[in-house]
Amino acid sequence: MQKFLSFLVLGVVILGAGWFALRTLGSEEKDNDDVLESVAVERGDVVRKVMFVGTVQPVRLTEVKSEVSGRITKVLVEDGEAVDTGQLLLELDRTAIESEIESLSREMVSNQLRLEQSMRDEKRVVDLHKKDFATDKELEDATTTMKLAENELRIQEAKLATLEERLGKTRIKAPHDGIVLNLDATPGEVMVGANSVSEGDVPMKIADLGQLLIEAEVSEVDLTLLEVKQAAEVSFPGMFGLELEGVVQSISPSAVEDRKEVVFPVKVLLKTKDERVKPGISALVEIEAERQENQLVVPVSTVFRDRSTAFVFVEKDDTYEQREVEIGLSAANKTVIVSGLEEGEMVTLGIPSDSDYEARRGEVSRWSVWR
């Protein structure tokens, strides 16, 4: 008897717990619908923008190199200094080249004397040959000797011109007006010249800061939305509130190789200036790619997608109507409703608990629920 009473009490407890759980679940579902937030269908603008980050660079940036190798003797500029076209930047040791020029000049004096002597000898043999006092061979030999002396002198003149050109290249000058950047030259160090074998050292760069641009890489997804001459807004993370106008200058026809994602180089020219903007700083570029104005719009989070169908839940008295809609441009958390809704109707930001869609939501893959 005592065991029977124990089982009876246990059964009553279990039944009571089950009834309480069902009641609680039912109230939660009701509460969920009670707190389900709705928003009105309104008219507004939807603007789709392409945004990407790039680096500020001067339009004209020249690497200063030397065509000859040598030890640096003088550095005549400082990093950040403004220079003019043709201004002397640095000098290389000229001693070895000057010695070669001096030695060659002396040889040329001797060869000039030999040429003058051979010319006199040739003239004398010509006179003797006219009087039959010199043979044809003697005339030919005298003429050949004179021409060899003349040719040797011309070869030395060409060598001298080459040496003088090399000497001039030991004085490195600014290729154009600009600012000295990345100065890396110290008197006493040896600089390697640029030639067919070596790219040579870069002791500094000269940047024309009169015109700047943004160099960036844009994903293939956004590339189709960009065009040359599109207007752009450029801001700078390190300078709050500063915005400059820009324009798309160029879009590379081919992607960058050896990247995890497919990206294309893009250049945006700055049309306005600010002294605070320097080469090397980061810039955020925003380009308006598409705009739809005065359209019926709702938050993106009110629209759901099941396979190829888009739909919303519309408030109808105390219930919710699942309604198919046609959507247009979506951007900035808003989407255009082409058809299926009217201005002022209320749509939910979530899925009603008693909807048929909610009942089979587990059968729909995660990506197909579009928000």
3D architecture notes:
By secondary structure, the chain is α+β, with helices and mostly antiparallel strands. Helices cover 30% and strands 38% of the residues. It has helices at 2-34, 95-130, 136-168, 220-223, 356-359; strands at 38-40, 42-64, 70-75, 82-83, 88-92, 171-173, 178-181, 190-191, 204-219, 231-236, 239-251, 263-270, 282-299, 304-306, 309-316, 319-331, 334-339, 346-348. The chain has a six-stranded antiparallel β-barrel. The protein has a four-stranded antiparallel beta sheet with strand order 6-5-3-8, with no helix packed on it. Helix 2 runs antiparallel to helix 3.
Q: What's the gist of this structure?
A:
By secondary structure, the chain is α+β, with helices and mostly antiparallel strands.
Task: Give the helices and strands, then pairings.
Layout: H1 2-34, E1 38-40, E2 42-64, E3 70-75, E4 82-83, E5 88-92, H2 95-130, H3 136-168, E6 171-173, E7 178-181, E8 190-191, E9 204-219, H4 220-223, E10 231-236, E11 239-251, E12 263-270, E13 282-299, E14 304-306, E15 309-316, E16 319-331, E17 334-339, E18 346-348, H5 356-359
Antiparallel strand pairs: 1-18, 2-9, 2-13, 3-5, 3-8, 4-7, 5-6, 7-9, 9-12, 10-11, 10-13, 11-12, 13-17, 14-15, 15-16, 16-17
Task: For this entry, give a set of tags.
371 residues, alpha+beta, conserved putative lor/sdh protein from methanococcus maripaludis s2 fold, Elongation Factor Tu (Ef-tu), domain 3, OB fold (Dihydrolipoamide Acetyltransferase, E2P), 4 domains, 6-stranded antiparallel barrel, 4-stranded antiparallel β-sheet, 5 helices, 38% strand, elongated, disordered C terminus
